[in-house]
Structure formats: structure tokens, C-alpha cells
Design goal:
The protein is an alpha/beta fold. The protein has 15 helices and twelve strands. It has a five-stranded parallel β-sheet with strand order 2-3-4-1-5, sandwiched between helices. It has a five-stranded mixed β-sheet with strand order 8-9-10-11-12. The chain is globular, with a radius of gyration of 22 Å.
């Protein structure tokens, strides 16, 4: 078994990986754990994260290996035989990328953990992976982390403009004026304004690869969306070519209608599908990081529920898939995306979002008033177009400081 191509690939990729800019996830991961799972949508930086870890924390790379299971090398070579051979030679750390390209990945990971007791395993996979359902086998063994795209806070860091810690939602609600004043002052000290920077982020700052493909960024996003539907989903679910085509059409139909309280019957008829298949496709697009689904009731794992409002996952996708995206939709999409990373969101009777079951938010431009939510307790406006807010009127950009 000729493993030289794998080590050449490892050295080449680590050699070109920068470690100056680290994602928020890096510091939260306990890299000493024996089994670490990292999942997230395409383009969010999973591969870069583990390559940074290898470059930063392993001066000697003789006893580790990075592999990606979508590599053609595995068309003629067996991953278990590879690891068995290298373990006998002193392998201590294996980093497995794109694990969903292995048909029995859950059994693979379990066997590696059980059969090689001194082996540390880090693996990454699509956010579509039903890792939760595998916890019967892996829950006692693995620690799972989930990655998303860049927050506005991280974007400012990646642009070398501002480094600051994350802000909790409660701290933001209570102290947003002071926090905003500090951010605006620090950016002003380098002749930058927060609102133009926020506008750039909304258009092309969510995926870390924006720095490498600025001119072709939105075309690259279209490719990412296609790969999620055409390659990732079929690796995880046994679906027909017809279903893949319907998913692609569903994404484009919804992209030009969001946000909406959808007429699901009409949508399913347009896609020539039934309710069950339609809900499965919607949820797959959500897990794949392409849609955001908002409901009036908390989701349960027992059944797939009809969403009450549908968004694209993030504002960058809106600019890539929609010719003239609506500014109101952009604002709501940003709020939904940034808050949904670590907070529960519901679609309330009054207002745009109910957060953590206790805060009501209305999202809008700087002319937005409290008229719709004035009688509700713990109600706030998330307002676009202002640098600094007051009382319960909070600048929209500040909700990008939460992670």
C-alpha cells in the first residue's frame, strides 16, 4: 500500500494553511479528547480548522495523518487497512475529513475507537449527517461540535479591523449602547465605519473562503449549493436523481419567495411531490445549511413539522441566488441566522421573532417603530441603518457579535 500520496497531500495542505486567523470554534474544542466530531455545512471552514490544529500543535507530524474520504486514493485502497498498518507503525492521531463519503461511517468510527485504544480520532462531516441518531453507538465515546459561517464579529477579525470577545444576548440587551460606542470608536480610530462594513458582510462575508475568491464569490456559492444537493445528500440518503432535481428546484423557487408563510400544498404541487417527500427535502436543505425554517412551536425529533416561515440560511446566499434581494428580507435573514446558532427562535403571533421563549423582536429599518409590539413585555427593535441605539432600540449589526 503506497501511502506517499497521502503524506504529500498532508504536507502540501498544512504548508499553505495560515494560523493567524482562527475561527471561534478552535478555542472551544478540547483537542485532547480521543474522539471528536465536527460537522457543518460546506464552506464553513471545517477542513481549515483541523489543518490549523495540525500545523499549530504538532511540531512533529510523523505519527499523525490527515485523510479526506472523497480522495480518489480510496477508490483502490481500504481506509481500515490503512489505519491498521499505520497504527502498527506508531500512528497516534488520525484526522478524517468528509466522513460521509464512507457508506458505513458510523460503524467505521466506532470500530476505530474500540479497536485502536491509543488512537486519537477527529472527523468532519456534512451538517446533514444524522450524528444524533448514531449516539446509541457513539454518545459515550465522542464529543460533537457544530460549525457555522462567520459571524459579523469574526468578519471584522478576518478583515484585521477589530478583535473583541463574543457578547452574550443578555449583556447585549442590557449594555448595547456602551458596547456600540466602544466598537464605533475603535473602528473610527482606523478611519472605518461600522455600517458600510456591515453591508459588505451581508453581501459577501459569511463564508471564510470569501477572502480567496472575491470576484467569483457568488458563483462559488452557487456551486456550493449544488454540491450539497447533488453530492452530499445522496451520500447520506438513498435518493433518486428525480428527488435531487426537485430539491434544486425547491431551493430556487423558495429563494425568490422568502420569507413567506408558505402555501405548502401549492409548493408540493409545483414540485410534483407529496407532503412527506416535500418535508424531507425542506429539512435536508435546512440541515445542509441552505434554508432556515421558522415555526410557531418548538421542533421535536419525532416528526417533521410544516414550517411557518422559510428563509435562506444566510444573506450571502440571498445575493448569490436572488437577482434583487429585498432589504427587509436581508435584515430578517441576518437576525435569524446569527441568533439561531445558539438560541431558540419561534415565529410569534406579534413581532418577527420570539427568542428563548421570553424576548420578542421586530426587525426593520431606522424608521421602524414599536407600534406592533408596544404592549408586549421584553420587546425590542433590531434596527438597521443606525450605529448606536438607545433603550430597547438596538442596532441590527450588533446581533452579529454573539458568536
Amino acid at each position: 500500500m503506497n501511502v506517499e500520496p497521502l503524506y504529500n497531500n498532508l504536507n502540501r495542505r498544512v504548508g499553505t494553511t495560515q494560523t493567524q486567523l482562527m475561527r471561534y470554534s478552535y478555542a472551544s474544542i478540547d483537542w485532547d479528547d480521543r474522539l471528536i466530531a465536527i460537522k457543518g455545512p460546506r464552506g464553513c471552514g471545517k477542513t481549515t480548522l483541523i489543518l490549523q490544529h495540525i500545523k499549530k500543535d504538532f511540531k512533529n507530524r510523523d505519527n499523525l495523518l490527515y485523510i479526506s474520504l472523497d480522495d480518489l486514493w480510496f477508490a483502490n485502497n481500504n481506509v481500515v487497512e490503512l489505519i491498521d498498518m499505520l497504527y502498527a507503525q506508531g500512528l497516534t492521531h488520525i484526522f478524517i475529513d468528509e466522513v460521509h463519503y464512507y457508506s458505513h461511517w458510523k460503524q467505521l468510527i466506532k470500530n476505530l475507537y474500540d479497536n485502536y485504544p491509543n488512537l486519537h480520532i477527529v472527523y468532519t462531516g456534512s451538517s446533514m449527517l444524522e450524528i444524533e441518531k448514531s449516539r446509541v453507538d457513539l454518545s459515550r465515546r465522542q464529543i460533537m461540535y457544530e460549525m457555522q459561517g462567520l459571524s459579523f464579529r469574526e468578519y471584522l477579525l478576518f478583515e484585521n479591523l477589530l478583535e473583541m470577545p463574543t457578547v452574550t444576548l443578555d449583556n447585549l440587551l442590557e449594555n448595547h449602547q456602551q458596547i456600540a460606542e466602544q466598537v464605533v470608536a475603535r473602528l473610527g480610530g482606523i478611519n472605518e465605519k461600522v455600517l458600510p462594513l456591515f453591508g459588505k458582510y451581508l453581501e459577501m462575508g459569511y463564508y471564510p473562503f470569501y477572502k480567496d475568491v472575491k470576484r467569483g464569490y457568488h458563483s462559488r456559492l452557487k456551486e456550493v449549493a449544488n454540491l450539497i444537493i447533488e453530492q452530499d445528500y445522496p451520500k447520506i440518503e438513498d435518493v433518486s436523481q428525480s428527488t435531487i432535481q426537485k430539491m434544486r428546484k425547491m431551493l430556487m423557487v423558495l429563494a425568490n419567495r422568502v420569507p413567506q408563510t408558505p402555501n405548502m400544498v401549492e409548493l408540493y404541487r409545483e414540485l410534483e411531490t407529496d407532503r412527506n417527500q416535500g418535508l424531507k427535502m425542506l429539512n435536508a436543505l435546512e440541515k445542509g445549511g441552505l434554508l432556515g425554517l421558522l415555526s410557531k412551536e418548538t421542533k421535536t425529533l419525532k416528526h417533521l413539522a410544516r414550517p411557518d416561515k422559510i428563509y435562506l440560511n444566510n444573506t450571502n446566499l440571498m445575493y448569490a441566488l436572488v437577482t434583487n434581494p429585498d432589504i427587509g428580507t436581508i435584515r430578517e435573514t441576518f437576525f435569524f441566522n446569527q441568533l439561531s446558532q445558539s438560541h431558540s427562535l419561534l415565529y410569534p403571533v406579534e413581532g418577527d421573532f420570539k427568542v428563548d421563549g421570553k424576548y420578542t423582536f421586530e426587525v426593520g429599518g431606522k424608521g421602524k417603530s414599536f407600534t406592533q409590539i408596544k404592549d408586549l413585555p421584553a420587546s425590542y427593535l433590531a434596527v438597521d441603518g443606525i450605529e448606536i441605539g438607545h433603550h430597547n432600540r438596538i442596532p441590527l449589526w450588533m446581533f452579529g457579535l454573539l458568536y
